[in-house]
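Researcher: Structure prediction, please.
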Amino acid sequence: MWSEIFIGYGVFILEVITLLLMVVAVVTTVISIKQKKHTQPGELIITDLSKTLEETGKALREFHFTNDELKAAEKAEKKAEKMKAKALKAQRKKGGATPAEQKPTLYVLNFKGDIAASETMALREEISAIIQTAKSDDEVLLCLESPGGMVHGYGLAASQLARLKQHDIKLTVAVDKVAASGGYMMACVADKIVSAPFAIIGSIGVVAQVPNVHRLLKKHDVDVDVMTAGEYKRTVTILGENTEKGKQKFQQELDETHQLFKQFVAQHRPHLDVDRVATGEHWFGQQALQLKLVDDIMTSDDLLLQAIKEKHVVALHYAVKKPFLQILGKQAEESAGNLLLNLIKNNKHTFM
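Model: Predicted structure follows.
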């Protein structure tokens, strides 16, 4: 009797799982078809940070008002808006620029770097949009966070930033957490670098780690043949036997890459003692200021609050459309990360 119940329950569970898989397959197919119809890979999202910051400050100020003070403030605001609208109307009749149009614009970009500098595509679109519309007194602020990664990925990201300088658009990079290795390669392109006091800066060096399991395979009588045409087509490998000559050539390539990195930094920050800072070491913001790796100690938040007084501050974000399965994978990754963070918090461990 019990065995029949368990068998029936098992069949029911399998039917539910099968039904769920069919629903997921249908939804995935429909979304994939819809995405294929859209040739546009993404869209540019524009946020008026000046308005957002003003509304936030206004809400906090009004929180402390009495009812009478609030009514008086609302009345004064309506009066000011009417006068402003009247002035704008008169200005347009004369054919002149409005106060908002007279203000220079600060375009705010964000770049959070991974090992492959995956956000470079979005950065390229954002910069192309700015180059097409920016006036001579407009500026760009890049809020950068990156520990570095692949040379070619970050080399392209730095080249995208260099396009701004080629078009005489001033660039400031703000580092609140980290701009190391490839991240600093991007930062050094800027006209000005500002850093939070404990942000990690520097790491001007090159590293490569190649695990090799050749001896393990040999111990178990497993042969791996690496066939190449060209003396240095493969210098070091994971499975094959690495020769001393191959290791020396690989080290030579690392040294050459490091030299190019140093030259790039020296080109954009000529006042730096490059040999002093290009040791692969990193420093905190205050130390980096003394070494002239950065130009000022400040958070990006304070920079924005300063800018809003004189500039129209606008944030740009190019949102790349992702396949449905990639979105699901990203959500699963974030869930796993949150679970790990919760476990760490529950164990009361402290990290610095």
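Model: Strands lie at 42-48, 105-112, 139-146, 170-180, 192-195, 200-202, 282-284, 296-297, 312-320.
Researcher: Thanks, that helps.
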